[in-house]
Amino acid sequence: MCLAIPVQIEQIHDEFSAIANIGGLKKEINIALVDDLQVGDYVILHVGFALKKLDEEEALRTLALFAEMGIDVPAELASDAELPGTGEVVS
């Protein structure tokens, strides 16, 4: 399944990559499309790319809706995946 989901930024490596917390699962993501990110910010993530910044309330509300629908966001992302534009596989 391919969803755009809210994730929280845990570490920022540089202007292109960061580590996001996705329900306890940590994944490296591409943040090049979003300006002025800080640790603790929420972003919408789609196929490995942060698309826009969200406020915490909106992010938590969206995650609650996914839970109500029975969508386990970390399980959807738990499989190995290639980082966009890098060829690097992460798990």
UniProtKB/TrEMBL annotation:
Task: List the Pfam families.
Answer: HupF_HypC
Q: Which GO terms describe its molecular function?
A: carbon dioxide binding; iron ion binding
Q: What is this protein called?
A: HypC/HybG/HupF family hydrogenase formation chaperone
Q: Which GO terms describe its biological process?
A: protein maturation
Which family does the record assign?
Belongs to the HupF/HypC family.
The cross-references to PANTHER family, in alphabetical order and at most eight, read:
HYDROGENASE MATURATION FACTOR HYBG
